[in-house]
Specification:
The protein contains eight helices and no strands. The chain has about 160 residues and is mainly α. The chain has one domain. Helix 1 packs across helix 6 and helix 4 packs antiparallel against helix 6. The longest helix has 16 residues. The chain starts with a helix and ends with a helix.
Length: about 160
């Protein structure tokens, strides 16, 4: 099973079974795939060069803290953390390195904090702007985004 098949067939169903139904959509799945491809190609769990980012979505500790503290995402992610039986004081950043379902929940919740609707097919520029606004990558590579965005929609 390829990494993409694993995320689409195992991680996404588990993730969306734990989140409110309104958080599941083709647009959400496409953005999660596109961002995972952009950040790690779904191949790396730890940032290359030994940086602080972990999981296929390359969360830094501040990203985890941001999801835990944002008024739109906090109630949802706290419920997920409780469902997974992790105490809130646990180092969740360390845990998401190897817990793909929790990492995916954090990624979806981070997108949930954005005030605009998710991009639809053929809106890679809107997707890029949301990705930049939510992930705030240190060294963004816009030249790869459109291809990954389109690939994500093709995989759905």
């Amino acid at each position: 099973m390829s990494a993409i098949d694993y995320f689409q067939g195992v991680v996404f169903p588990a993730t969306f079974s734990m989140l409110p139904k309104k958080m599941d959509s083709k647009e959400a799945r496409a953005m999660l795939l596109a961002i995972g491809l952009q950040e790690s190609r779904f191949e790396e769990r730890r940032q290359l060069g030994n940086g602080p980012a972990v999981s296929p979505w390359q969360f830094e500790p501040t990203g985890v803290s941001g999801v835990l503290s944002h008024k739109a995402s906090r109630p949802v992610i706290v419920e997920v953390v409780n469902m997974m039986d992790y105490p809130l004081g646990t180092d969740l950043h360390r845990i998401i390195e190897n817990n793909d379902i929790l990492a995916c929940c954090f990624a979806r919740c981070l997108l949930w904090t954005h005030p605009n609707s998710l991009p639809i097919i053929n809106q890679p520029t809107k997707g890029w702007m949301q990705y930049i606004n939510c992930w705030r990558p240190g060294k963004p590579h816009q030249q790869t985004w459109e291809g990954f965005f389109n690939q994500a929609w093709e995989m759905l």
